[in-house]
Write a structure and sequence with these properties.
This protein is of the alpha+beta class. The protein has nine helices and 24 strands.
Length: 414
């Protein structure tokens, strides 16, 4: 093996000579502690705030929007301290981690989380958090968690996680550099949150007529959906007919729609002319079933922007009058008075929505097509800005990943 000058061979590959290979348990003051096994209760500022797996976002931050509390006598033993890091020990999100941030307030960690308290004389806590974002860590989680058949990693297994570790001073420099990207990512997230909040406020005002755009004074009228749309249903499509060099775009049962866009699953050779339903550009699409709840059906509204074949139980709303604006109606249906549609759903294990149950739903809407379009354009412009800022955030995330790949392995020194 050709080892560059200043480097050495290790169980994890070639690393700098002054680096060591350590296990997580060797750099922490504890061996992994399991959280509190108690039910969550509605959030109450007078009670401890509960941190569960579901309260940790995919990027390892604490989700503030739906906080819960816990009511027990021994909660004091489970409060997180500055530098503590917790890991999800079971389920589909095993391996997910959260580095405690005092700005999140006092948190009590739940039973499906395992706490490690880093020895700050050996390792920078943030450095561990960065390690959990690497490809090496995710590969390790994938390997360890599937050994028993049921996804899960216990405290002893987490303590055995190996990684290359630079001297403390270099850790601090690496953490400082990567922290710069974290700050940029966080600033982008805050900007996106503000834009989404602004859009939500505008939708509530513009889509209900509480606020009118300049130049429009015509009264609004109440219309049933059946007055605006003809309703159709997608036909079944055979999965085996999908092929990369097919000639028809199609959308299959169970596709999750990106709002106001469509996702094409693939293409297929249409040998049976009764197979699939040919939708048109401007059709408003809704899934006809879900395994979660009725609100998810309402949120998953899309606008078809091409002529494609629809399969499964996709509900198609085709406007009767070209002067009705598809984007306006799709936004209205998915964002205003969701309860009206959610109440129409049926089922327990699988939630179904039928076109016939949508037809009599009423909405108050602009008389003029031009006002519908103007409202849709305002909201669309905000969507475009949110997408632009989201792409910028994603770019920072990818840049950070690239830096971690070289800095946390010693391939690049600072």
């Amino acid at each position: 093996m050709n080892i560059p000058q200043g480097y050495k061979s290790s169980p994890l590959g070639i690393i700098p000579k002054d680096w060591e290979v350590k296990r997580l348990g060797e750099v922490c003051v504890n061996a992994g502690e399991y959280g509190l096994n108690a039910p969550a209760v509605d959030y109450n500022p007078a009670l401890p705030t509960y941190l569960r797996i579901t309260d940790i976002d995919v990027d390892g931050t604490f989700i503030q929007s739906d906080k819960k509390s816990v009511m027990v006598d021994n909660a004091l033993d489970y409060y997180l301290s500055d530098g503590d890091i917790v890991f999800a020990r079971t389920g589909a999100t095993v391996g997910k981690s959260y580095l405690y941030n005092p700005k999140d307030g006092k948190l009590v960690f739940a039973g499906f989380l395992i706490r490690f308290s880093p020895d700050k004389n050996k390792i920078v806590p943030y450095y561990i958090k960065c390690l959990t974002e690497t490809i090496a860590y995710h590969n390790w989680v994938s390997t360890i968690s599937t050994r028993s058949g049921q996804p899960g990693i216990n405290a002893q297994e987490y303590a055995s996680f190996q990684f290359p570790l630079p001297p403390l001073a270099e850790q601090e420099r690496i953490a400082e550099l990567l922290g710069t990207w974290d700050k940029a990512i966080e600033m982008q997230k805050q900007l996106i949150d503000k834009l989404e909040l602004r859009k939500k406020g505008l939708m509530q005002q513009l889509l209900t007529g509480k606020k009118r755009l300049k130049g429009f004074t015509e009264p609004w009228v109440e219309k049933q959906l059946c007055e605006v749309f003809d309703f159709f249903k997608g036909n079944g499509l055979s999965k085996e007919k999908i092929c990369p060099d097919g000639i028809y775009k199609c959308m299959l049962y169970g596709e999750i729609f990106t709002q106001f866009n469509y996702i094409t699953r693939g293409q297929f050779h249409r040998t049976n002319y009764n197979e699939g339903f040919l939708s048109k550009s401007g059709d408003v699409l809704m899934p006809g079933s879900t395994t979660t709840n009725g609100y998810d059906l309402v949120k998953a509204v899309a606008i078809n922007q091409d002529n494609i074949f629809l399969g499964g139980d996709i509900i198609i709303l085709r406007k009767r009058d070209i002067r009705d604006d598809s984007l306006f109606w799709a936004t209205l249906i998915s964002e205003i008075e969701r309860q009206k549609i959610a109440e129409k759903t049926q089922g327990i294990t699988i939630i179904h929505l039928h076109a016939k149950n949508l037809m009599d739903i009423k909405y108050k809407v602009p008389t003029l097509y031009t006002e519908q379009t103007a409202i849709a354009n305002v909201l669309s412009a905000l969507d475009n800005e949110i997408q632009k800022q989201t792409e910028k955030r994603d770019k920072y995330i990818e840049e950070k990943k690239g830096l971690m790949q070289v800095l946390l392995t010693g391939k690049k020194r600072i």
